Amino acid sequence: MNRKFVFIVFFFFFFTFQVVLADLKIGFYKTTCPRAESIIFGVVRRRFTTDKSITAALLRMHFHDCFVRGCDASILIDSKDEKQSEKDAGANLTVRGFELIDEAKQALEEECPLMVSCADIITLATRDAVALAGGLHYTVPTGRLDGLQSNVGDVNLPGPSVSVSDDLQLFTSKGMNLDEMVTLLGAHTVGFAHCNFFQNRLSSPDDGSMDPALRNQLKRNCTSSNDNPTAFLDQKTAFVFDNQFYKQIKLRRGILQIDQNIADDESTAAIVSRFASNPVTFQRSFANSMIKMGNLVANEGEVRQNCRVFN
User: Fold this and answer.
1) In the chain, which segments carry CATH 1.10.420.10?
2) What is the annotated signal peptide range for this record (predicted)?
């Protein structure tokens, strides 16, 4: 399908881009930009070679984008003096990987101008990063459009200490179920968190929910400097996309409160055990859940020339 920028209007050297409708399908760019997916993969592979943590970064970016206004790349918009974008929301201040999206977009603009959306770049780059880290290489439909809004006040994402029921409420509001919620939290198998996100678990009285050896180790690490150190959320295989995360939280080695909560809560414990005992089941469930999350799209939008600004 060709992007229908038919009525591009030129007037005194200014132009506007027609708003179009989203049309997700497998192989959307087959005729309009055949090398789109391979170009994005090349950018991700080069970065992954020198920075294995990019998988976690892109997974977080993708989730934080899709769970606000749908997967519309609104998280990429830079704030202006008079208006703050989603980037400036507290939950997004530590989101990273924007320069990788810029690199992919620049390469795609040289190959096929105004054809591949920034939203599709995020989705495909995340898929590729997961595969490079050992996850399944799943097929995703493309054809997403870049949103026309990005407001700091629209960001309402679950915090690291949220309860299972509150977390589920957000997921169900997006059409996702309990199994998919536990599945997507499995992205923490390649994640890490700054101490301030779990410091409350170390400073409060020991409630027995964290392995004592891990608790002592984290206490030492988090008080060793004033730079807000980080800790891997999977203490075993931090850069490998596998099911070790679930095995760890069953041993009370969850770093974030929500991670430990899904292992302990009676509504989710069986799902955690299933994924901990069967890596193939987790990988397939994760791929399916990512595809479903990626289908949360805005109905209309544009294809940005620069991912950081609206056309």
Assistant:
1) 164-291
2) 1-22
Catalytic annotation present for 194: no
Where in the chain do CATH 1.10.520.10 domains reside?
Answer: 21-157
CA distances from 111 to 40, 117, 125, 146 (A): 12, 13, 17, 19
21-157 CATH: 1.10.520.10
With a cut of 70, say whether residue 18 has pLDDT above it.
Answer: no
The two tokens of residue 147 are: 């949103």
Q: Which two tokens stand for residue 252?
A: 């009370």
CATH classification (class only), 164-291: mainly alpha
The per-residue pLDDT for range 217-240, each reduced to its tens digit, is 999 999 876 788 999 999 999 999
DSSP string, 172-197: HHTT--HHHHHHHHGGGGG-EEEGGG
- Residue 142: beta bridge partners? 25
CA distance 155 to 246: 28
Annotated binding residue at 113?
Answer: no
- pLDDT tops 50 at residue 130: yes
Cβ 268 vs Cβ 177: under 8 Å: no
- Which of these, 146, 134, 125, lies nearest to 36 by C-alpha position? 125
| Arithmetic mean of pLDDT, 92-103 | 97
Stretch (H or E) spanning 230: strand 230-232
Residue listed under structure tokens 């901990």: 276
Q: According to the annotation, is 300 in a ligand binding site?
A: no
In the structure encoding, which two tokens stand for residue 157, read together?
A: 């994402």
Contact 77, 279 (CB under 8 A): no
Confirm or deny that 268 is annotated as ligand binding.
no
Determine how many CB atoms are found less than 10 A away from the CB of residue 270. Answer: 10
Amino acid at 205: P
Cα–Cα dist 190/167, whole Å: 20
